Amino acid sequence: MLLFPARVQVVAVGKLNSRYWLPAQEDYVKRLRRYTDFHLVEVKDVVGRGLPDKVAIAKEGELLHQAAGSGRLIVLTPTGTQMSSPELARFLQRQMEEHGRFSFLVGGPLGFSPGLLAAVHDQLSLSALTFPHELARIVLLEQLYRAFTILNNEKYHK
Asked: Comparing C-alpha atoms, which of 42, 119, 136 is closest to residue 144?
């Protein structure tokens, strides 16, 4: 039984192939599906495949936007709004109540195209620190899980 009737997605550039990131991703996706209709969607990474960086980033932006489908778009950027875990939980609750369907977008190593950034509804930052995009994805998944446990008054968040 889903506790929160919303469709929540994380749409990310590239696949996680590392033996230390992949199990964490699988675990958090499984945990998140206990709370809501959660999906992790990976789009092809284009940067470093023979195209100029600006063209590749634009193509990744198109792929992210297309994969996200309809609904609210929220990107992770270094300049986005930083929130505490309880603030993220409240933000998540508002998104579920007001929009029902939304996607968190995680870019590749070079970030997002200006075109995609112009199309999104919100920008969040995980930290003032710089993370590899693979780690940013895991941190996002963990924080989403933490937010759902906060909303459900569970002991995970201390």
From this structure: 136
In the block, tokens 């550039």 appear at 13
Query: Structure tokens of 45?
Result: 């990474």
Record the pTM. Answer: 0.93
Walk me through the domains of the chain, giving residue ranges and CATH numbers. Answer: 4-151 (3.40.1280.10)
Task: Tell the residue number behind the tokens 């889903």, with chain if given.
Answer: 2
Q: Taking every pair of C-alpha atoms in the chain, what is the biggest distance, in angstroms?
A: 49
How far is the first Cα of the chain from the last one, in angstroms, to the nearest whole number?
Answer: 25
**pLDDT under 70 in the chain at which residues?**
1-2, 157-158
| Closest C-alpha to 120, from 58, 80, 75 | 75
pLDDT tens, 88-123? 999 999 999 999 999 999 998 889 999 999 999 999
d(CA 13, CA 107): 5
Bridge partners, residue 4, by sequence: 36
- Report how far apart, in Å, the C-alpha atoms of 62 and of each of 49, 127, 155 are: 16, 26, 39
Cα dihedral 23/17/148/91 (nearest 10):
160
